[in-house]
Specification:
This protein has about 140 residues and is mainly alpha-helical. It contains six helices and three strands; from the N terminus they run αβααββααα. The chain has a single domain (about 5-135), classed as Orthogonal Bundle (Multidrug-efflux Transporter Regulator, Chain: A, Domain 2). About 65% of the residues lie in helices and about 5% in strands. Strands 1-3-2 form a three-stranded antiparallel β-sheet. α1 (about 5-20) packs antiparallel against α6 and α4 (about 80-95) crosses α5 (about 100-110). The longest helix has 19 residues, at about 5-20.
């Protein structure tokens, strides 16, 4: 295999990794752009977990602190939903314990590191550019 063929194979392999490792994101509901606040039922549907799971995660993860409406209902913002999605990924895909996920989120906030999905997305874009140059 020539070095050109190897590079082409590697680029295609890396492009397919995003699909293989994050196939569950195919079933993910997008966060509506036209809304700023979400009730617990909407967040439950968007993230794909039951409302009681969200309430439990609020007790375990300090990064989830929804506001309360005058009616005492939980009101989540977009940042809350993104944090909840990351928690779900850590617990369900990476199979971390709640304590492990809490530590990972705390470390990520301290170092301001980018999430693995964003890191893969950037690599994917760079590999697409390399692939275009090789064609």
């Amino acid at each position: 295999m020539s070095s050109f063929e190897f590079i082409k194979f590697f680029v295609l392999f890396m492009l397919s990794l995003d699909t293989l490792t994050h196939f569950s994101s195919l079933y993910k509901v997008d966060i509506p752009d036209n809304k700023r606040f979400f009730r617990i039922g909407e967040v439950s549907r968007i993230v794909g977990v039951k409302p009681y799971v969200l309430r439990y995660w609020e007790t375990e993860f300090p990064g989830i602190r929804p506001k309360r409406a005058d009616s005492r209902q939980r009101i989540y913002e977009r940042e809350d939903i993104e944090t909840i999605r990351e928690i779900k990924r850590l617990l369900y895909e990476e199979k971390l314990t709640v304590e492990g996920a809490r530590r990972r989120l705390t470390a990520a906030k301290k170092t301001h590191s980018m999430s693995p999905s964003n890191f893969l997305r950037e690599i994917k874009e760079e590999l697409k550019q390399v692939f275009k140059m090789l064609q």
